[in-house]
Amino acid sequence: MADTSPPPPAPAGGLRLRPPRHRLDRRFIVWRTLQALPWAVGVLGTLGAIYGYAESTRPWLGPVLLVAGPIYAVTIAVMPTWRYLVHRWEATDDAVYALGGWLTRKWQIVPISRIQSIDTEIGLIQRFLGLATVTVTTASSEGKIAIEGLDLRVAEETVDRLREVAAATEGDAT
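The structure assignment produced for this chain is given below.
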């Protein structure tokens, strides 16, 4: 039976959860692929080496490899593109919006008045690809949005803009 209850009221200040406007940088796909490859090579390589050298493990390790191989193949070949197609973000004068996920989708909104800190992370692979991750945090333990895969210039501009807007906004960031 379909739910016929009315939609929940808009949060205080009139902010509504809505699809964010911006996609991540296309290099996000390469970054996520490069992150997944070492895990796949490490796990499958280790299991394959054990399978090859320890004959007693073959009866149970063979099926494990038959399951793990396709899982890692999907993780490398499908997951980065799928996440790129799903993930969206937007920073306005009122809030930061994010949509993410792979198997499940997570919609988030952080009002500007609740921002406690804005951080930029640039890992080794990200630096090589010219990407960054911007994390917007509130005082709440659940109030954190991480926007991965932004072009470095876009990330810097977004952090500067959010810093200016948050500093000009009244609120106690709690």
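Interim note for the steering committee: The domain at 89-168 is CATH 2.30.29 (PH-domain like). The helical segments are 27-53, 58-77, 79-86, 124-129, 152-168.
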